[in-house]
Specification:
It contains 1 helix and 15 strands. The protein is mainly beta and about 160 residues long. The strands form 3 sheets. Strands 4, 5, 7, 10, 13 and 15 form a 6-stranded antiparallel beta sheet that branches. A hairpin with an 8-residue loop joins strand 1 (about 1-5) and strand 2 (about 15). The longest helix has 4 residues, at about 110-115. The protein is elongated and about 65 Å long.
Length: about 160
């Protein structure tokens, strides 16, 4: 069973209910993007995560390193940021998920967590964000203080989201 706009001769299915009752909405906003960016970044310098490797972007809402909400609603936004050589003398390592309405902060304290440089560390997070049509969301990261040799590994980091309700 398919729901189409207008008459049934339309080739665009907006919702499909299959024989087992599973419902799919092929135009529902949803995306998963990775970054090709991998770098050692300067201390006290906020870096925007490049969003240049799309696994999928169902509604073409990701461009220029930001997601733009096509409709007003609640969006489930998730991220995973992979860092290597996290310096144990850093004051903090922080990831920001910034939307038009607010910024969500995810932070670790390497001085308290590590006795030596950490070879690998991942910061993961998820939020249910209220977004209006045309609001944007982006991800950035920053190290405060310490030695400038922490690396961001973009190919193992992602940003994803979908319209939840």
């Amino acid at each position: 069973f398919q729901i189409k706009q207008g008459d049934t001769s339309s080739s665009t299915a907006y919702m499909t209910i299959n024989s087992i009752g599973a419902v799919t909405k092929p135009l529902q906003p949803a995306f998963l993007v990775f970054s090709t960016d991998s770098n050692s970044f300067p201390v006290n310098d906020t870096r925007l995560m490049t969003l240049d490797t799309e696994v999928f972007d169902q509604n073409s809402d990701v461009a220029s390193n930001v997601f733009t909400a096509p409709v007003t609603g609640r969006y489930n936004l998730s991220l995973s940021m992979y860092f290597t050589d996290v310096q144990d003398d850093a004051i903090y390592l922080e990831v920001y998920l910034t939307t038009s309405n607010r910024t969500y902060y995810f932070i670790i304290d390497p001085e308290a967590m590590f006795e030596r440089v950490s070879s690998y560390h991942t910061i993961t997070a998820s939020v249910l964000a209220d977004m209006d049509a045309s609001d944007t969301a982006s991800v950035s990261y920053r190290q405060s203080g310490g030695t400038a040799s922490t690396d961001f590994n973009g190919s193992d980091s992602f940003f994803s989201g979908f319209l939840a309700c």
